[in-house]
């Protein structure tokens, strides 16, 4: 959920200043003016509960590779504090870097099917560390106005600076995939990164239509596969997993915003992400699921002055796979 305060104003060469809206999504708007810096501290909280094990967001649960465990429920809380910096290179082109710090806690209710357990076991895990640093570039494709939309093309690169999910030591003694293996395969310390490089091209549109403003984004994220992946076990060794291909995802969102006055803006919108299935050694994992994450969102913004704005957005999951609730507070500062 990261849009720009620059979204609130047209680039100087566009000749018009579209209405200000409260940002909702991870999408660009009209870009940061040339020579301007924007520093944006933010805090994001999300809570989800599910009975599924799948790859979504920045975490991969390693029981994808262990069908012996029957996961009944996962209750997950995550808090991400981030600092984003943007620089307007020209009136149509900007660069961005985002550095997150992640704290996660999971309560996993599971049952070991091989051991014939008849009662559930609750495993509590947590983890905190730097997340995956992201780099982005955006270019305004046309000169919009009050009568035609702005289009902004962008590309985002996600690194692997966060704690790798395959770095965590599991509770298996030697191996997790053998039928007589001891342990659940659950990690002792949660990951704060996905463990995979990713590249996301996207295109955003922004249409002033006084008194409302329409906006949205279409994106596709490709996650690069990794070879010679190993899972750590308790005896200090590792269990080879081979080549892991994480799923790609397709996303789109759309919203409408209203400027109540020169300081206050409100927005509502819908965000949807479709995530494919993970593969191991070229074969689709049988317990990997295709995910549909749909979220309804509302946002509020208050302009403190010409350089400072407070943005608050809240989202509620509409599909089974989406987080139950998410809240984000951002304070972009322009220099």
UniProtKB/TrEMBL annotation:
| Subcellular location, record wording | Cell outer membrane
Task: Kindly provide the name given to this protein in its UniProt entry.
Answer: Acetate kinase
Extract one GO molecular function annotation from the record: kinase activity
Would you name any one GO CC term?
cell outer membrane
Query: Is Lipid biosynthesis one of the keywords UniProt gives this record?
Result: no
| Chief location | membrane
Q: Where is this region: Disordered?
A: 1-22
Q: Which organism is it from?
A: Massilia forsythiae
Keyword annotations for this protein, in alphabetical order, are: Kinase, Transferase
